[in-house]
Design a protein that fits this description.
- The chain contains 10 helices and 3 strands.
- The chain is an all-alpha fold and 313 residues long.
- The protein has a single domain, classed as Rhopdopsin 7-helix transmembrane proteins (Up-down Bundle).
- It has a 3-stranded mixed beta sheet with strand order 2-1-3.
- α3 packs parallel to α7, α3 runs antiparallel to α8 and α7 runs antiparallel to α8.
- The longest helix is centred in the middle third of the chain and has 34 residues.
């Protein structure tokens, strides 16, 4: 290689969503609005669940954790993206890039694990209702969430440590709005074979395991629900799963649309769209999906709003 190509880089340039300056103000306003909705919407859900004793159940415990992860997930990429829009400074230090990559994959994978845990909860509640409270004890719920955090942290740590050992040459432009694994690997002038094998192995394990758990759980749920004689009973049982199924469909539908497609010149734009959907749009929609059709959640949110509103004579 040429000597100039051997110069290691200390920072990267995030090219972002659009290179046209006239789009910056619109994109800044759009994503700032979505980010604020994400933060306040998910914080309201967390506050409602904590303050309402009627919501101190396994289902809402997992939902509380999902809302917390969604806040962190969105905060991994959106604040830096907003700063880039406002200052037009696209640089990110090497350490900051690794930290962003670590956090994105940690919270993104944690989202999928929590969706799997919530599917297990619905499976136990509908298929084994008489044993539900005996099995889904607080200790068991804590172990399910704690184990998910441990596994996802391990995955992100392995990816980050392997990436930190690579050498990055003169090319430093990342065609993305955040630091992701594959765009970074393409900039490396080191041997990335080990990284690619680890990404493939973790990708298979971390995506198939939660999805298989979700599919198995809902196959059992559907079989149980369809055996309920009254139509009203079927709808009542299924309605407790509708919000979760909506989020699962959005989350995994987006992942499949990107990572199961063949590589093409337009795949970079599709990667951006998928990352925006998983890391920005879905965390924004989750508060609405889980509250609009849930009477208990709406009642708890009204209590929170009434307590926060100034008292009127």
């Amino acid at each position: 290689m040429e000597p100039e190509n051997q110069t290691a880089v200390s920072e990267f340039l995030l090219l972002g969503l659009s290179e046209k300056p006239e789009h910056r103000i619109f994109l800044f306003g759009l994503f700032l609005s979505m980010y604020l909705v994400t933060i306040f919407g998910n914080l309201l859900i967390i506050l409602a669940i904590i303050t309402d004793s009627h919501l101190h159940t396994p289902m809402y415990f997992f939902l509380c954790n999902l809302s917390l992860v969604d806040i962190f997930f969105s905060s991994t990429t959106v604040p830096k993206m907003l700063v880039n829009f406002w200052t037009q400074n696209q640089a990110i230090p090497f350490a900051g890039c690794l930290a962003q990559m670590y956090a994105f994959h940690l919270f993104g994978t944690m989202d999928s694990f929590l969706l799997a845990v919530m599917a297990i909860d619905r499976f136990m509640a509908i298929v084994h209702p008489l044993r539900y409270l005996a099995i889904m004890r607080p200790r068991v719920c804590g172990l399910l969430v704690g184990g998910s955090w441990l596994i996802t942290n391990l995955q992100s740590l392995v990816h980050t440590c392997l990436m930190a050992q690579l050498t990055f040459c003169a090319a430093s432009e990342i065609p993305h709005f955040f630091c992701d694994l594959m765009p970074l690997l393409k900039l490396s002038c080191s041997d990335t074979h080990t990284n690619e094998l680890v990404i493939f192995a973790f990708g298979i394990i971390m995506s198939i395991s939660p999805l298989a758990c979700i599919l198995f759980s809902y196959c059992c749920v559907f079989w149980t629900v369809f055996r309920i004689p009254p139509a009203q009973g079927k709808w009542k049982a299924f309605s407790t799963c509708s919000s979760h199924l909506t989020v699962v469909t959005l989350f995994y539908g987006t992942i499949f649309a990107v990572y199961l497609q063949p590589t093409s010149p337009a795949s970079s734009q599709k990667d951006k769209a998928a990352a925006l959907m998983c890391g920005v749009v879905i965390p924004t929609l989750n508060p609405f999906i889980y509250s609009l059709r849930n009477k208990d959640m709406k009642a708890a949110l009204r209590k929170v709003v009434h307590k926060a509103a100034p008292s009127q004579s």
